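Problem 12. The chain below contains 198 residues. Write out its predicted structure in token notation.
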Amino acid sequence: MKFHNAILCVFALAPLHLHAQEEASDSRNRAIASIEAHAIFDETFTCSQHPAGQLRSVGDDLGQDCVIEKMIDTDGRLFPRTFQNDGYRNEDWYGWDKPVLSPCDCSVLAVRVNPVTNEPGKHGQPPASFILLMRADGTKFLLAHVKDPTVTKDQRVSAGEVIAKVGNNGYGRSPHIHIGAWKDKDALQIRWDLKTTK
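Solution.
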């Protein structure tokens, strides 16, 4: 399968409300650096991107909301879709409960679980379940709206290793993964390593 990177729509327009989250430097008034990351899914996926300055917290600013999609045949025509039926059940979404892969060779700084599962189309209450990772150079990655994390604090993980499943919790309205990256207080634009996508 191949990777699709497109700006579709914004799944959540509010900060993740992490207790330790700091305000990012103003990405609208500085050069924006990028960071290469391993694909977070082993299937076709697409991401919507948060524009510079839209969300002010590190981990949110310049972040991406990523969903798994499938090509669906409708009367001999193929269309990319993120869910089947009406999408009102989490199980309708192609990404629901699918493995989430580590974007980097990192250490796990924190894991938080919000046990409340949202209904698609309805915002839940923060905070989102999340995994916070850090590379050896100090770059951090936040993956939010996860469920069933398979890692614990201080564990070392490799890029591409399964670390959780796709959930729908916190201030989100559909099964997806929010990912953000930053170093110090500077949010980074994530660029996917296309050799790691399907």
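Discussion. The mean pLDDT is 90. Students who got a different answer should revisit the alignment rule from Section 12.3.
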